[in-house]
Each structure stands twice: as C-alpha cells, then as structure tokens.
Design goal:
about 280 residues, alpha/beta, Rossmann fold, NAD
C-alpha cells in the first residue's frame, strides 16, 4: 500500500494506531486539528486538517489508498456542536475519498449506534440502529452513509462499532472492553482484508461477558486475544449494586443511554488518559 491516512491521530486511540499503520504502507499521513504530534514514526508525516472542511479533506486524501477515520467529537454535546465534526465531517471524508479514488474507508463507529438495546440482548452486526444520544445518531448517519457509498459508488467501508477501548474500571467494561492490542488487530484486519464491501464489526475483545455477536463479520479475520475476565475479581469486589431499572445499568450504551440529549457523559465514564507516548 502506498499511502494510508489516519484522522484523529492526536487522540488517545489514534496514538496507539499511528505506529502499526506506519508499518503498513510506504507513507502514513496522520492528521488532526492539533498543531503537531511531536516525534513522528519512520514513514509518517503530519498534516493538520479539519474534518469539518471539505477542501482540507480533499487535499488530505490526495493519492491515498485507504483512510482510517477516527476524527470526531467523542462526547455527547448539543446537536449544533456535533453537526460539524461528526455529521458533516463524515460526509466530507466519504465524498473526498470517492473523489480521490480511494479503495476503502475504515470508520470508528460505536456501540452507541445501537445503545438503547437491552444489555441482555445479544445483538449482532445486523441489529437495526437504536442510538442513545446525538453522538450515537452521528454514528448511525455515518454507517448509513458508508452503506450508500458502497451500494451507489462501490467505495468500500468497514465500520468498527467500538464498545469500550479504555482501562477496565467498572462492571460494564467486563463485557465491553477492547484492549489496545485488539484495537490494533481490528484496524489492521479492516485495512488489509482484500475485499470487504460494506461491513460492520464490533470492536470488543475476547471477553467471557461480551454482549455482542461478531459471527457475521468473521470473514474479516478479526480474532481478539485479550479477555477482561482477568479484572473481574477486583472490579466486582468494589462495585456498587446494579440499578435493575436504570438505563445506565440495563442498556448497551451504559451511561450514554441515561443522560439527557446534548448532556456531556464523559465525566461519568472515569476514563484513564493513558495515551501512548512515542
């Protein structure tokens, strides 16, 4: 592969993807709205670009084979704030990818596209959308955009419905955890699988308590290695009793399912900022 592009490269997940992606192509162009990324990996260069600006995406994707699109607001915010980066940004990436003749978009979708399903529902990759927030609605929009661009314009897409890619700090994460090593494997398979058409795959590790079914995406070759059960004894010992009537404890979206639309949720998530330093 001659050129890969990664958006959202300054984010926590992007920090773990840069090095492995830099080894998959002659050139990796990492992009974000930050001024710089600091030290770069061999074969990597940085190009500052705003996903909400189509002309900047068009320039960014010049000569690329695949774009790994992780750039977005990653919290629930009012719709007007979400519109530019998460809705319009997705369109800009897909349209620029089509105009530039890319083969595929690999997209960081989310469990929040189906976050209002009961956690006891073992949902598959073909479960109809049930977003829990404006954030989840943006993921639904991008997934449908990806399906349409495949069916109308033959631009492939792999949508990674990531569950919880962060340290395990709560009982929900015993089922939803995606380790960084498994994240890297997931993105690698989404990039190097010869043909994908339009595909959805859940971003989750090989957890005993995983609440989703990836069997229909098995052709991608994603075989997660890590298991959150290693944290179960510690997490369960310190856990508060579950609220069997509360949305946070009973829906796939967890706290996102319980907040009011437009209300920030990240403060409740207790996410450890363990961004990789290169």
């Amino acid at each position: 592969m001659k050129k890969l592009v990664l958006t959202g490269a300054a984010g926590r997940l992007g920090s773990y993807l840069r090095e492995p992606l830099s080894r998959m192509s002659d050139e990796l162009v990492s992009s974000d709205i930050a001024e710089d990324l600091g030290q770069l990996y061999p074969g990597e260069r940085y190009q500052k670009a705003d996903i909400a600006q189509y002309d900047q995406m068009f320039d960014l994707l010049d000569g690329a084979d695949v774009v790994v699109h992780f750039g977005a607001l990653v919290d629930e915010v009012p719709f007007e704030e979400m519109l530019g980066p998460n809705f319009l940004g997705a369109y800009n990436v897909w349209e620029a990818a089509y105009q530039r003749g890319l083969k595929r978009v690999v997209y960081a979708s989310s469990i929040h596209a189906v976050g209002m399903y009961l956690r006891s529902d073992f949902i598959g990759t073909d479960a109809p959308h049930r977003p829990d927030t404006f954030y989840g609605l943006a993921k639904c929009f991008a997934e449908d955009l990806g399906r349409m661009y495949w069916e109308k314009r033959q631009l492939e897409a792999v949508c990674l419905r990531i569950l919880s890619c962060a340290r395990v700090t709560n009982t929900r994460a015993l089922g939803t955890w995606l380790s960084y090593d498994d994240l890297i494997q997931l993105v690698t398979r989404a990039v190097d699988t010869p043909t994908t058409g339009f595909s959805i795959v859940y971003g989750v590790s090989n957890n005993d308590r995983a609440p989703v079914d990836n069997s229909k995406a098995s052709f991608l070759g994603y075989r997660p290695k890590d298991n959150a059960e290693q944290f179960a004894e510690r997490i369960l010992k310190q856990a508060q009793p579950a609220d069997i009537k509360g949305l946070s404890d009973t829906r796939h979206g967890g706290p996102f399912a319980a907040v009011d639309l437009g209300e920030s949720c990240m403060i409740q998530m207790n996410i450890v900022d363990d961004k990789k330093e290169n």
